[in-house]
Amino acid sequence: FVHGGMSALFMDQLLGSAAAAAGLWGMTAHLELDYRGPLPLETRLVMRARVAEQSGRKSLITGTIARGDDPGTVLVEARGVFVLPRPEKSQAYFGAITDASGQHSPPRRPGDATALENP
After folding, report:
1. Strand-strand pairing, 45-55 and 70-83
2. Hey, which residues are catalytic here?
């Protein structure tokens, strides 16, 4: 079976991606998982996520993992709180980020932390 820590990694990434797809850039502030059954190895999985709530800088994103051949039976359920950092925190966290050429390039939107060129 898949180690529970991998389930947490999958869900943190999936929930963050769902937030970003909805235009809700943020950092994980809280992640909670309920393990309802083991995830088998070498098995297709179905992972789903959605924005459950959004208010100001905070978003609640929920998600599930199920087996591909039984998508109605949830094996892992997750809830994550994602928070957009205040401007001064963003500067402290990302102010030193540069692109591959060494140019100062802090993230302005999801995915920008590794961008090579300005959009």
Report:
1. unpaired
2. 12
